[in-house]
Amino acid sequence: MDTAPWLTLVIVAPLAGLPVLLLWRSISDDAARWVGLAATLVAFAVSLGMLANFETGEAAFQMVSKHPWVESVGLSWFVGVDGFSIWLVMVTTFMFPIAIAASWKVDHQVRRYMAMSLFLETVIIGAFLSLDLLLFFLFFEALLFPMYYIIGVWGSERRIYAATKFLLYT
Predict the structure, then answer these.
(1) Which of 43, 95, 113, 167 is the most buried (most CB within 10 A)?
(2) Which pLDDT tens digit goes with each residue over 34-43?
C-alpha cells in the first residue's frame, strides 16, 4: 500500500544534512549554517511537491505508505496525510528555514546546533504524518532529545533548570 514516496521523503529530507554536520568535523561554522539552511529548504521543496500532489476533494488519508517494521510488537512504518496534517507539515517546513536564518548568530557549537535543528524538524514532521500509534510515540518521544539539548546548551541563564523541567513535564 505504497502510493507515493512523498511522505517518507519529507520526513527524511532534513536528515540529508546530518551526515555532513556529524561526520565532517572540520566544517566551518558558516558552512554548517549553510548546510542546515539548505537541508531545511530541501524539506520545504519536498513538502511543496507533497502539497501539489494532494487531492483536496478526498476525505481519506492520502499518499499512504505502510511497511512492516518490527512485526513482533506490531510496529510498522505507516504514514499518511489528511487535510489538517498537510498544513501542519507545510507550516513546519516553512518555519524551519526561518528559524535557521534567525539563529544565524549562534556561535557556540554551531555544527551541533544545526544537527539538532535538523533532527528536530524530522521528528516533528514524522509525528504529524504517523498513522501507527507506536510510530507516533517514537517520533513524539524523540522530540525530547533535541529539545532538551537545544534548551540546555543554547538557552539563557537558567537553561539547565528549564531543560530539566521541560523533560520532566513532557
Answers:
(1) 43
(2) 999 999 999 9
Q: Which three cell numbers stand for residue 119?
A: 533532527
CA distance 132 to 153: 32
Query: Which pTM was predicted?
Result: 0.90
Cβ-contact 134, 141 below 8 angstroms: no
Q: Residue 35 corresponds to which cell in the numbers above?
A: 548546510
Report the DSSP beta bridge partners of residue 130.
79
**Cα separation of 42 and 18, whole Å?**
13
Q: How far apart are CA 16 and CA 14, in angstroms?
A: 5
Contact present, 99 and 37 (Cβ < 8 Å):
no
Which H or E element spans position 29? helix 29-52
Long-range own/partner contacts, residues 58-63 (CB < 8 A, 24 or more apart) = 59/83, 61/131, 62/3, 63/3, 63/4, 63/6, 63/7
